[in-house]
Amino acid sequence: MSTRHPPPVPSTLGGTPSEAPDLITLGRRIRHARTSRRLTLEALGERVGCAPSLLSLVENGRREPRLSLLRGIAEALDVAVPDLLADEPPSRRAELEIALERAQRGPLFGALGLPEIRPSQKLPVPVLEQLVGLHAEIARREEEAIATPEEARRANTVLRHERQSRDNYLPQIETIAEELTVSAGYAGAGALTHRTVARMAEQMGFTILHVDDLPRSARSVTDLANGRIYLPPASIPGGHGLRSLALQAIAHRVLGHERPRSYGEFLRQRVEITYFAACCLIPESTAVDFLTRRKRERDLAVEDFRDAFGVTHEAAAMRLTNLATVHLGIPLHFLRVGDDGALFRGYANDGLPLPQDVTGAIEGQLVCRWWPGRVAFSRRDRATESYQYTDTPAGTFWDSVQTGTDADGRQFSVTVGVPYAHAKWFRGRDTQVRRSSTCPDPACCQRPPADLAERWEGVAWPSARMHQQVLAALPRGAFPGVDDTDVFAFLQRHAPVEE
After folding, report:
1. Could you say which of 125, 284, 305, 314 has the lowest number of CB atoms within 10 Å?
2. Are 228 and 201 contacting, i.e. CB atoms less than 8 angstroms apart?
3. Burial class of residue 477, CB neighbours in 10 A (0-12, 13-18, 19+)
4. What pTM, to 2 d.p., does this model score?
5. pLDDT digit string (tens) for 438-481?
6. Domains along the sequence of the chain with CATH
């Protein structure tokens, strides 16, 4: 079975790569070209009219050469300037020397207070291999040490701000997903079938297999050596969950992901594969046609969007955040709130002030008691969406809310809302339900009523429920939260028998 994959694409959530050359790699390429021609620094300096000491700084990546000097060096060494500026190290030894230089210039090494080792030609390659390996392990352990809930919250905050700045729209992933679904036979209407997802996997050189013994810490496992994607068995025939899991596994290959080097990179990859799966399950062109027609009819509704593509209410609501602002000109917000009032996931580009802690993180923060995402739990009829206008210090917002229950039996609500001026496009805009919130003013809902406080303050002693995820340690492994031993043992059990 072929396991060839398309070339990796750059991370769509990262910043724009710097235009400046990599000075260490440039220096090593110059040194490699010089020594392969058996020239000393003095000899090269005479050819280009430059002091050997300056050339030494350039070769060690500590001085950026002027363009005129770079051209002179290229001419003296009979190589093209673009060849000197190439990203790849000229040899394995140069690659190791560059890695060692970078490690020793980093703050982690600086904090150790140890002397630097100059990666000269006299240093044997095996020693370089060992030194680079040790630095990589130190860095891995440092990253592992900060892979805590606090670090996750900080990384999530960075990603949320990036998504907000892009209106939660990643055009590169949209294009890739659309091309793959069409090539796999998607007809451009209705739900993406399991068979179409299987064909997408086959195009990438993989077979999807369902097993009942996946490691507890893994949602899926991909066997790159044998071209297999392992998923849990289907609990609900035709359900959206397994299609999404399969597409997320495929996404790692399509988007060219490599093993995450930090917890933040791990979370970034999660955002990208989730986005890719949503693009496949609700393809952009078909979805935009559907939403544009409904906006024209002033009958936008998450529940209709959900049913048209056979996905969960939450998936449809999140997908709306990808498309509504860019294609419909509608700013909006999305909230998933637990029945305890804690915010599990949120996004806003319409000015709604999401509750946050001093670091800017929103996860776990309590939303106002009068916001529709909490009010919805008091409704008797939860089978359909509920609607509400809420007056806040940031303006009036209209919201649509649907409640549900997760796999562990815990209740949650999904809210999609817009500023008052954009409510005219949505079904439910005629609701008479209206509440007022002055949060974050403590007088709004954070303080108990005066009569209750007077009666019970000082004589109440509740035993708080511990949120275990706050203290839970992440299993050690190459991927945060995943136990390598369990995964490798699983793959060994399911690997094809070698003849």
Report:
1. 125
2. no
3. middle
4. 0.70
5. 998 888 988 888 888 788 777 877 775 555 444 454 555 566 66
6. 23-142 (1.10.260.40)
